[in-house]
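Q: What would this chain look like folded?
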Amino acid sequence: MIFVGREKEARKITRALERGDNVVVKGIYGIGRTALVRHVAESLTQQFRFLFADFSKTPGQVCQELLSDLFPQRRYRKEDFQHHRYKEMRFRIATRALPDGKRHVIVLDNIGRLTGQRLALIRYLGWDKKFRFIAIVESYVSDAELLLLRAELMPAEVLTLSYLSAQSAWELLRRLAKENRFEWTETHMRHLAEAIRGYPLGLREAAEREIKRCKKKIPQ
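A: My prediction, written as structure tokens:
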């Protein structure tokens, strides 16, 4: 993963976790929220263990993902979870001794609709401060729902990701070009960065189109 232009935000997340706070990351689709959190996770492997869960799924499915990540030696099978009710799985996550002694961070990705049951799961897992949380929130989450989420995660720092700067967008394209051996000139990359206006997903899609174009040029 190529990481460019989010160093300030990465430091904020790191400092928040180190002082025991939770983090809420906001921004539009494709702006790089999950990529930022995964970069932080890779840089903090000595201090924390990060557990990623897709919070667009049901609370029961979220608990299945967390149990499998927390205790991989158990080798859970899909049919195992059919014999465990949701509340039992939730209880096991909240009360089981953590296996490696590290501080654990639960990353709740793709947070959209915040039902009462989803908020209750966050409250249950966070009541004794055993886990720290990073909540990656979709842009369409209402202010009222966001307020409820922040109340469950207090204390929590909120980060809103914006577009990359022109310089960071150019640097990302330059690295993508070097990694994939694109024959892009510096002028072309700067014009491309300006046209896409620092939208990370747009920059990566431009690189993917170039990869496909290059493959078509290779004789079969």
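Residues 166-217 form one domain.
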